[in-house]
Every structure is written in structure tokens, then in C-alpha cells.
Design goal:
Blueprint: E1 9-11, E2 22-26, E3 36-40, E4 45-49, E5 68-72, E6 75-79
Antiparallel strand pairs: 1-3, 2-6, 3-4, 4-5
Length: 83
């Protein structure tokens, strides 16, 4: 059953205020999506930090921040388990 108190949109730094307590999952695979910067489950996309094949973050063309890519999909938000 879905948690009706969860928003359909979350962004690192907020909103929502408790954004650190929310995890993002890919509905198709059930896998947790890592490095999420922003997600909109109603619109079907997530923005994530980009990593290379060795797992290192890739810088944006400006070289000043980590590159971000928008991926389409069916995502769900879930609160982190307590404990």
C-alpha cells in the first residue's frame, strides 16, 4: 500500500523538509535509485548524479559541479525504515 503522506516531488535540500528520510525506487525493477538530486513521480522522471564506469562522479562541462542527467521511469518514494 502506498504511503499517502509522501509527496510526488522531492529535491535534495527540500522540498519536502524531511527529504533526507525519503528513498527513491524504480517500480519496474524494485531497485533503489542512488544519487537522486530531484524526482517527480507524477511526471515520471528522476535527476541523478552521473558516475563513470569506476563509480566516480563526472563533472559538468563547466567543471564546477557534478553532472546530472534526467532519466525517465516509473518511480516511487518511500520513507527510510526506522531503526
Amino acid at each position: 500500500m502506498a504511503d499517502e503522506t509522501l509527496p510526488t516531488y522531492a529535491k535534495a535540500g527540500g522540498p519536502p523538509d524531511d527529504w533526507t528520510e525519503i528513498q527513491v525506487f524504480d517500480v519496474a525493477t524494485g531497485a533503489r535509485v542512488e544519487d537522486v538530486v530531484e524526482v517527480n513521480t507524477a511526471e515520471g522522471w528522476a535527476e541523478v548524479y552521473v558516475r563513470d564506469e569506476r563509480g566516480r562522479y563526472i563533472l559538468s562541462p563547466t567543471g564546477r559541479e557534478v553532472a546530472v542527467e534526467r532519466i525517465p521511469g516509473d518511480f516511487r518514494l518511500q520513507r527510510r525504515p526506522v531503526g
